Amino acid sequence: MEYHSSQIVSLGREKYAIPRKNLKELVRIPAAEVKQKIDNVGTSPVVRLRQKFLPLIDLADVLGIGKTYGACDEQVKEDRIKQIADRRSLGRLTTGQNPLPGDKNDFVGRQEQDRGTSRSSAVNIAIVYSDAYEYGLVVDKFHDSEEIPVFPAGRYIAPSKIYLGTTILKSQEAALVMDIDHVARGGDLSRIAETIADAVSHDATLRPQTDFETLSLLTFRNAGTECFAVDLDAVERLERFKCSDFEKTGTREFVQYRGGVLPVFELSQAIRCGELNHAERQDVIVFKHGGTLAGLKVRPPIDTIELRGKIDTSIFNTPPVRGSIILNDNTVLLLDVPALAHLIQGGDA
Q1: Which CATH superfamily is domain 214-348 in?
Q2: Per-residue confidence at 263, pLDDT binned at 50, 70, 90?
């Protein structure tokens, strides 16, 4: 029996596990932003994320089950909206004409309590990797990550090939473990990717804009109210370990990880900042630098953001800090990962 670190999601009342090795990030698009973030290229749904389009696969479609949503009374009800992009007015990428007022496809004029514009219209997307593609998997809800046992799929489940096996969650609920590669095949991802690539190649307005600076960041806390961020491209993965998983040899701290050893550090080892307090669970950002992996202990909330603008280097600009931004009235210091790795490795030698 194998154990996998997995992200738990749900469709309706059923829960599923996505292996963390296939997971890049979790994205929740509020109802008010669906119009800007989700559209159709041809008949294929896509999400605009950090100036590129990612194919969307609705897990409910792949599994062949009815779509549901969490209503205001916390009941699970049937979702009558069949297309993801139909949860807002039709956009520029959509083939066909914009709907006329009063048309059955006119979602702009719906009242606040209606499905198309209510808070429950938010779209939850797990950004995952398959063999050759990165795509968004649409689910109803996100739950906690868990280290789960994976049991072989039974004879009734194995033929579908979209499940790695079954598991029992901490809540004692049974769940199916998804095979992300086979989900991509079941969702006809290769055809969707070709459709997107063809549309972008023939329409220059769909290509990333270069007349502004786009910052794609992973934000996190250190000690107290200290806020930091790193370039999202520098992040290999986000993991969570039990404190009992960490081992120490002299001043070096590490954890067993993917059949090897992952060195783990605190930010206070590189810059003047607070030291982390011990907790039962510890979040770790895994970076890849110089062909090796290293982990940085952090505190939640951990989030991904996309900003347009410039980094302020007038005050905070001493490596590994490369500047600052203001986010939600908080000063967030931006860290340069190569410089951070150099300082930590130098101090650890």
Answers
A1: CheA-289, Domain 4 (2.40.50.180)
A2: very high
